[in-house]
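The authors assume throughout that readers already know how a fold can be written as discrete tokens. What matters is that the chain and its backbone geometry are given together, residue for residue. A single example would do more here than another paragraph of explanation. For illustration, here is how one protein appears when written out as sequence plus structure tokens.
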Amino acid sequence: MKPKDNFSTRSSTYAKFRPTYPQALYDYLLSQTVGRERVWDCGTGNGQAAQVLAQYFLEVEATDLSSQQLSQVSPAPNINYQVARAEEPPFPDNHFDLITVAVALHWFHHKRFYPEVKRVARPGALFAAWAYETPQISEQITRLFWEFHDETLGWTYWDPERVHVIANYSTLDFPFDELQTPRFKIELEWTRECFEGYLNSWSSVNHYIRKNGVNPVQALMNKLEPYWEKDEIKKVVFPVFMRAARVI
């Protein structure tokens, strides 16, 4: 089955406007990881998580399906970026102390990916996959956001894999010795322009534009004007969920 690549055409927008993950999330990963030699960041995108992990590990292998996404990364001497499918990692057995997947696990072919995780992980390595929920802003903005999410886009334009994110990955098979993980949150100070950029990074918006020839985000921005002035800063919170396991 051919893997989906929904983000190559908007790789620069993705890199600029997608939220960054909180330090508390990385602190948790480090508290659960014994070794500090090698980490594999699978589905790395623009290398957001890989760049932070490189501060703590000797070597970071960061792979992604999209060469366009990888063109947006910030190089580091101990990060090796390469194009590779999640289900076909070019790594030897028993190689990694930590394996991470940030906002990408729902796209993978899990029956092929999970055996590869077990193969390349060292005994006792940590495997962690996380994603964030929809943003929380003000009552009026959140209401208009959900109208856009559910009615303007809906399942006509969302890929079916979206259901796994909405369910906090509880709908995904997870054949590991799972750990109880804490909840995290991303807290941002955004202008309306930042919020617009984030929405424009969505794969569903891209699908809508391809089918209809018009960007639906602009209509939403017009509706938001009474509640969010052009240069006004608002607090935006993204709850973050994680599934993690010790690979035996």
Summary: The mean pLDDT is 93. DSSP finds ten helices and eight strands in the chain.
